[in-house]
Design a protein that fits this description.
Elements (H helix, E strand, L loop, with lengths): L4 E4 L2 E10 L5 E6 L2 E6 L7 H14 L7 E4 L5 E6 L3 H7 L8
Parallel strand pairs: 2-4
Antiparallel strand pairs: 1-2, 2-6, 3-4, 5-6
Length: 100
């Protein structure tokens, strides 16, 4: 399965599968159509979510403040709004094989 990026008003929506408290920060392939993201910070008081937006922003050339967490504030499965066209997002994110 490939990375699923859905068009949304003014940009697109991207599903994420996040692992907080990991051994490294990385964008780590695709899982069930969602981008796998690892962050080293613990999931407390929104710190992991902030790091996820920073990491994603770096990869997309956007400030973290340009991204919006739409769903999944306290869960590993998240949805982020990005102010770019889906094709641009797919082109900027690292291509990686499906992980199971």
């Amino acid at each position: 399965m490939t990375l699923q990026v859905e068009p949304a008003e003014g940009g697109c929506r991207l599903r994420l599968r996040v692992r907080a408290g990991a051994d490294r920060d990385s964008l780590d392939g695709v899982h069930g159509g969602a981008l796998r993201v690892r962050v080293t910070v613990a999931p407390e008081k929104g710190k992991a979510n902030r790091r996820v937006l920073e990491l994603l922003g770096e990869a997309l050339g956007l400030p973290p403040s340009a991204l919006r967490l739409l769903r999944g504030e306290t869960r590993p499965d998240k949805v982020v709004w990005i102010p770019l066209e889906p094709i641009k997002v797919r082109g900027l994110l690292p291509a990686a094989p499906e992980k199971t």
